[in-house]
Amino acid sequence: MQRSAEDELDFLEEIYYKPVYYDELIDNAINGASRMLVGQRGLGKSATIHFLFKELKQNQTLPLLITRYDDIPLNNNEPYFLYKIMQSLCNGIAHCLFVNKKARKKLSKYQKEQLAFFIELFFDPQTSEEYVTSAKEIKQKQRWNFIRKFYNRSLPLINGLLNGAIEFGSDFIRKSLGISIDDVSIENVAREYLKEADLLRINSIPIDEVVLWEKEKLIKLLKQLKEIANTIGYKSIVILFDKIDEYPEINANVDKIVDFVKDILLDTDFLYTKGLSIIFSIWSDAKRALNKAGVRFDKFEDINIEWDDTELEMLINKRLEYYTINKEHPVTMGSLLPQISDRKLVLSLSNKSPRALIKLLGTFYSLEHNSNGINCFTPETLAKGMMQYCLSYDYYSNQSVKVGGKIDLYGWINKILQMKRTSFTADAVKAEFVLTPKNTNTYIQSMMRYELIKENIRPDEDGKTIYDVIDPRLQFLISRGVSELHG
User: For the chain, N or C: smaller number of CB within 10 Å?
Assistant: First the structure.
């Protein structure tokens, strides 16, 4: 089984298990309510975003997926986000007109002039690759007459495009939509935004210059694009932001995530734009920090996407059914792990993460050597697989709080393992490492800062605070006598 939503896009509909919040989320999106998907890495945020993107297309909604954040600075960046939204919206409108000739007739001459200007201003070869993809799809359906008429090009040029030999630009896109410079005047619209209406000038305006325009001017651009989308049949527009935490400049740092998104999230007037919904996918740790930064979650509601064990088992069963050869008797988690205690332990080690559960089951599978097929995992496989999984787990990459480096994190993990307890007091830390009271407090605070331990709400019999190890994988290693990890 694959471990990433991007690896499963071709068959996502067959394996995706709708979580309890899904119907509410899609209803909110269609009706223009902005939402934030909150959860740790591996909980299925990207899978939900991609599935949402596919389903929204069927509801008179124009969904736009943004996963690239090139050229956006880490802070003071709301104009850059608006630019990216408009660029994506412009491309989405053009793509709709590309495949739906009738929709073009709904536009007025002035709206065609506006769209011609927007295509020139926001053209980006990387986000326009859908034109080539669509052309290939049309070729596969053998609709050559339609292609000839649509492109108004010779057959050699069409073949060149399909083979990737022709470099296409904004002028090609306009002509493919039936918007010729001979029929419309970009300059008429450009005068609303530029002091001089020069076609070459429009084409050369970089993002860093556009974002310096007054915010009112950018919002006006956005609203005009939205009106064009409404005219061609879309009742609402949904902007889906994903993989913000994977942007190289952020590098999964919670503080940088907060700085990156807070400006756009603080603009509640923009988030309340009628017929426009923003869906953010973000780490739960970032939500706490955004709260402190003043983001109004009473206005921009968040949805916690954590799974309980029952949902997680149903999710994995749907995936197992897809990969099962005998569909009448599909493999299930129950058939692979007949003992309830084993299933509970496996689900606990997965820590509410579908990705982690898939990896753990994959570890078991790789350890089995039955050439006749696997009916269930043996006790030996389970014991060896759990140990291997917990020892090799990438604790650093999956940690959202980047306090220090990898060596520091594993150093503190090893101190916890050395304690040989899943719960302990400050006195136990002091005795184990022979520390002064001051250094003991430093140890405790460091472990808490790395989110390796937390305070138990109940003290011990003497009224002293108890600290519990958080990660079930570390709890497992402690229970098996492991005292050191090599990161």
Answer: C
Q: What is the pTM of this model?
A: 0.78
Q: State which residues of the chain have pLDDT below 70.
A: 1-12, 125-169, 172, 176, 178, 180-185, 187-188, 191, 195-204, 299, 369-373, 400-403, 487
> Residue holding tokens 């990433």?
4
| Residue 417 lies inside a defined structural domain of this protein | yes
* Other residues' Cβ atoms within 10 Å of the Cβ of residue 67: 16
Cβ 219 vs Cβ 270: under 8 Å:
yes
Q: Give the residues across from 64 on adjacent strands.
A: 239
Please check whether residues 262 and 294 belong to one and the same domain.
yes
The pLDDT, as a whole number, for residue 377 is: 92
Can you tell me the distance from the alpha carbon of 392 to that of 249, in angstroms, rounded to the nearest whole number?
A: 27
Q: Are strands 453-455 and 467-469 parallel, antiparallel or unpaired?
A: antiparallel
Other beta carbons within 10 Å of 461: 5
List the beta bridge partners of residue 374: none
Domain end position, chosen among 272, 304, 336: 304
* Residue 397 burial by Cβ neighbours in a 10 Å radius (0-12, 13-18, 19+): exposed
C-alpha torsion angle, residues 26, 32, 33, 35 (rounded to 10): 60
Can you tell me which residue has the tokens 């490492």? Answer: 433
Contact of 67 with 243, CB cutoff 8 Å: yes
219 and 151 in one domain? yes
Give the CA angle between residues 306, 307, 308 to the nearest 5°.
Answer: 125
Structurally, the chain folds into a number of domains equal to 3
Structural domain span for residue 465? 406-479
Same domain, 471 and 340: no
Instruction: Provide CB contacts within 8 A for 352, sequence distance 6+.
Output: 40, 43, 306, 307, 308, 312
Query: Measured between alpha carbons, how far is 111 from 309 in angstroms, rounded to an integer?
Result: 52
